[in-house]
Amino acid sequence: MPAVLPSQDITIDGPKSVRWVLEAADCKALAVQRIARLGIDEAVAPYQRVRLHPGGSFVMICVEGSGRVLLDGRWQTLGQGMACMAPPRVPNAFEALKGKRWRFLWLRYDEPSFVSPLVSAASPVRLKVDGPHLLRVWEGLRAEWESTRDARALHHWIELVQHHARRLAEPWRRDERLRKLWSHVEQRIADDWSVATLAHEAHVSEEHFRRLCWKELGRSPIAHLTSLRVQAAQAMLAATNDKQEVVAQAVGYRSPIAFSRAFKRWVGCLPSEYRARI
Fold first, then answer.
1. Calpha distance 277→263 (Å, rounded)
2. What's the pTM value of the predicted model, to 2 decimals?
C-alpha cells in the first residue's frame, strides 16, 4: 500500500529532540555547493518532517538508533550504519519512533530544475555506510563553525562533506556492468524491460542481478526501473504539454492507469496534480 501523506509540509521537533543546523544564509561556503542546510539531529518522538515537493536532494546518514523514512513510496526503518537519499521534487518524510532516540546526519540541497541534482533516479535509495567516520566529518565542520570560523578551514570541511555525499549518491558506478546497463536503460526507457531482459543485458544471472541491485542500489531491479521511469515522466510533465497517455507510453507504461498508480506512489500525487503544481 502507498504511504498516505498529509496535504501540507510538517515540521515537528518535540521537547526532547536536540538539533544542530548550519544554514547557507549564515555560511556562504554551503551555497557554493548548493547545500541549503545541513545538520546533526538527535530525534525523539514526536519528531517528524514531511516535505511534499522539496526543491533539492536530501541525504540522511543514521549513526545511532533508528527511525522511519519514506523510501520508494513506502515507510521503511533506517538503522545505525545506513544512509538513504531522496531526489528533488519527490516527497521526503521521516519520523522518530516512540521510545527510541535517533541520531542522524543530514544535508538538504537547493537545486533548481535546470541543474543536475546530486541525487538522481540512478542513485541508490539506501546503502551501508561508515557512520562513525562520517560523523567525524560533520563534527569537524561543527567544531570549526563554533570556534574560529576560519574561511579556509570551513571550505575544507564543506568540500569534505560534499565529497562524501557525492560518493554516496553514485556508488553503483563502481560496478561497470550496472553503470553500462542503467545508462542504456535510461536511453531506452520505453522498452519492455523485465528482470530477465535486464539481467541478460548485464550478462549475469537473474539471481545475481537482483543481489547486485540490492547491494549497490538498496532496492530491487524493478523498483529502480520504476524510479527511472517516474523521474523521466516528471521531466516530460514539466517541459511539455503532452497528454498523460503520451507521457505514459514514452516512459514505458502501456496502461495510463498503471502509470498513474506508479507515479502517485513515488511522487505522492497524480501526474495531473504534479503538472498543476509546477
1. 15
2. 0.85
